[in-house]
Design goal:
alpha/beta; Rossmann fold; Helicase, Ruva Protein, domain 3; 3 domains; 22 helices; about 40% helix; elongated; disordered C terminus
Amino acid sequence: MATARAKTVGALKAAGYQPETVKQELRRNLRQALQEGRELFPGILGYERTVIPGVVNAVLAGHDIILLGLRGQAKTRILRALVQFLDEAVPYLEGSELNDDPLRPISTWGQRLLVEAGDDAPVAWLSREERYNEKLATPDVAIADLLGDIDPIKAATRKLTFADPEVIHFGVIPRTNRGIFAINELPDLAPRIQVGLFNLLEERDIQIRGFPVRIPLDLMMVFSANPEDYTNRGTIITPLKDRIASQILTHYPPDVETAAAITRQEAHTDRDGAKIHLPDEVRLLVEEITFAARESELVDHSSGVSARVAIAALELLVSNLERRALTTGDAAGETVVEPRLCDLHMLLPAITGKVEMVYEGEQQGPEVVARQIIGQAIRKVFDARYPEVGREVGSGGEDDTGPYAQIVAWFADDHHVTLSDEQPFAEYRAQLEQVPGLLQLTGVPDTEPARQAREAEIILEGLHQHLKLTREDLDSRISYKELVKFQLLRPRRGRPGRGSGEVN
């Protein structure tokens, strides 16, 4: 649009303005973006070959859209991003409740104004942000909220009969005329209210309280919904589904690298110059926790595990590092504070409130399940980086010749390691140095002490996950010890008289 915006209908005509529907406008601007090679949906990652092409095709076809997917799959964000394909501003008759096009008004008020004022009718301009509205569907939403109702006060003050269409108080959808209207969580809308949307989607008009007048609205309608088998609060009625031209399925990121890029983009990790360092391998480990939750048998797969789990978890991890940097780190003279595996127990609040469990998980409790999920994620990382833990490893007998034999044997001699996120780094590392061969097994050089110690923790946790060590959680401390059954499987050194019997 020109910088000098017309103020009257006459000036608008002189400038060569031609009316255009909102879907034509979206199509025109999207075509231009495609031709110019612009990024269509900035910040939306992992959908480049799936969801985004579907949305683009729907807009080019002039379709209304529903995005169907589990929680935390950027559905609302995509719908809001459609605003960028609207013009910067469009003209409307100043004072119109329905954003009447100056040359094609649909309201009785706008049509009368054009007859009375002609080319002198005042024109105002509507920005693209003002042309997007959304409503969260809840069971108490009424048809009057969405479409409108008769306003008896307006009728009384203006001395109009209830047969006059100007007594209508319009709802939020008509007030979004010439824009985009979104309804989130569509299944939560009562079926009788969904029926009220039929004409809007197919015939492009609304009827209020049986008024014979039809108001042809110019809208793009977009919706989001979780799968119906999850919500259990309602369904999208079949005739309404049939009227929504494009149904597009969303999904979670296909790999941890994409998920980590999303989390990096969304998480608040810049902490005012705090001396902390967050390696990429730790970011990926946090994402593995989310992936493990999605695969866990204790988690309700139909509800999904939102990307917000990883975002909140990473923010809590950084906060824990910041806390250590401000307390223990400063006292110990550490130049940079890096994450430890024992920091992960502080991520439980980000998991327990966002993961919906099946009955078995509820019986165990959210915190127990969250710890299991973290353990499964660490086991996956351990299995990918280190030698396989064989059945003989950790037996404590002469047949134990695996790479972890020396480590397990050390624990079998009544030794233990106690780690904490509150320990100064020197004390924390000293605990790991006690275990013979542990730091060497990591393959990390001594010039990277923080990473070396973190990898050593991964080995200990991996052995615990493979039932070679036991782990005890005491407040902020984690203690690794010999698994009780190993005491029965191998003879104690220096303790004659104890055979190496078998356990059934």
